[in-house]
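ok here's the first one, seq then struct tokens
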Amino acid sequence: MSDFYKKILDNNKKWVNDKLNQDPNFFEDLAKGQTPPLLWIGCSDSRVPANEITGTKAGEVFVHRNIANMVVHSDMNMLSVLDYAVNVLKIRHIIVCGHYGCGGVKAAMGNGSYGVIDNWIRHIKDSYRFNKEKLVAIENEDERFNRFVELNVKEQVLNLAKTSIVQTAWKNGQELSLHGWVYGLNSGYVTDLEVNFSKNDDLHEMYQLDI
């Protein structure tokens, strides 16, 4: 058994003991069910932990993560998470959270080939193509990279709003707000991009489904 593997097993035991010392009923209460107010769609990057960033407890955040925090309409994994969160858990907020320095976004800005992930990154390349004029006008490479991270998050929030799952919830009068954030790895702070959707009318009419 490797030292790291043994360490994480030991960490689990310590975590359980610490929680029980704080609250003897912690796990018993947790097992009764979940009513999280938030769905977090974030990057798989190991440095971007949803609960720690938001200071939330177990049971408060429903989480979906993938490379570069993408909302792809053909991704049944994401759609299943979204459907369960909206229609069963009745979450009230969805945050798409990207992060500066995202490797997936960086890869989409170039022409390198990385294997199977190329197929996933192609979706990000579409966002780059849509915003190419804005981006090439930014001379500083780091600033251009950061701006594309932000634009990619905004595009994914829009993709969420386009889904029939979200629009049906709005049509039914369900309280549901979509937000876009970017996390700073070197600071710990999030930037609210102030891209928010909370009703069908927030969408361009061509995307409003006749539900």
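and now the second one, same deal
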Amino acid sequence: MKAIEQAVHTTAAGPDGLRLGLVTAYPPSQTTLNEYGYHLARHLGAKPEVGELVILHDDVPAPITDLPGNARAVPAWRYGSLLNPVRIVRAVRASRADVVLVNAHFTSFGAGKVAAALGLLLPLLLRVSGTPSVVLLHNLVDTVDLEQAGFSSNPVLTRILSFLGRLVTRLVLVADKVCVTMPQYVDVLRTKYGARNVYLAPHGSFEEPDPIERGRDAAPSLLAFGKWGTYKKVEVLLDAHEILRSRGIDAEVVIAGTDSHNAVGYLAGVKEKYRGLPGVSFTGYVPEEDVPGVFGAADVAVFPYTSTTGSSGVLHQAGSYGCAVVLPDIGDLAECVREEGFAAVTFDAGDAEDLALALQALLDEPDRMIAMGEANRAAACGIPLADVADWHLAHLQEASGRA
């Protein structure tokens, strides 16, 4: 936090302001990181140092209108296309951006392995074209269990993917600077890859909403929010809900979000399998303007994950709206809870009985549930994304030579 505060005071605009290109998914796109891209753009666009923000977004059916005042939107890539890096570089040249910030993780540009890997050639092509770049990288292949995360079920293929993932990581590190959101990622990139152009910036909270007063009369609401079907699977939550009902514990389960690109049809299958289970609803895709209502109506955010692939935006959102949290003590989720001070009840990943016990322990103590929500709100809102944007801006100005 201290480093971020220092960055706020040391950044300075050039005579005409910085022309900043932002490569990101952006609503109404439903591609991963779209919501983070929306809020990041909003905060970057509000900075006086930024003269113009050019949002280089993925193709969407209609023109984007919800933009910061100094921003323009340019459709510059398509999810799954093998030509994304070339197309983006052309759009960057046309925009005459001083520097480019790439908001990405390892499957940002495609569900297919080839499209995903080729998309991350972008920093190399930007360097060749003479445009400075900073990559905000939300996960690392080195910290992901590829088999548990659903990327591979074959040990030989897993080793091949791990090798290719490390190669792609080295190509990403060709960028002028690479930002990661968790301290362990910095350690991996510096010790394993010898990187010296890496900096840490926290995920940051999108908003700081007013505290929510949750009533105690209605049945508690259990929310699971995400893109489902790979390492995020809701069956364990629905099985736990059935166990709770058999014990006379009344609750409502809300499954929010859509299928993962790698698991099309997953939620339809779940609905069919559990069609006779009462107290379950599916929202489908949640537009940005409806997100506060979904989290505000929830008492507990549940994370039915078997693996993790980076810092969790959903955890930060749940915290900012004062939700209690139940999650498996695994990977980046556990790291995020420890590093950022979230309060959580844990369960064994994939174990419906253990999840039911964790939920029952929490639902039996409403005061504890409320206290946990307040602690999570404090943790999530401790570092606003507006402050994190200042930290990114300091590095973007340095990369562009306008610090």
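notes on #2: The first helix runs from residue 2 to 10. Residues 1-15 have pLDDT under 50 and may be disordered.
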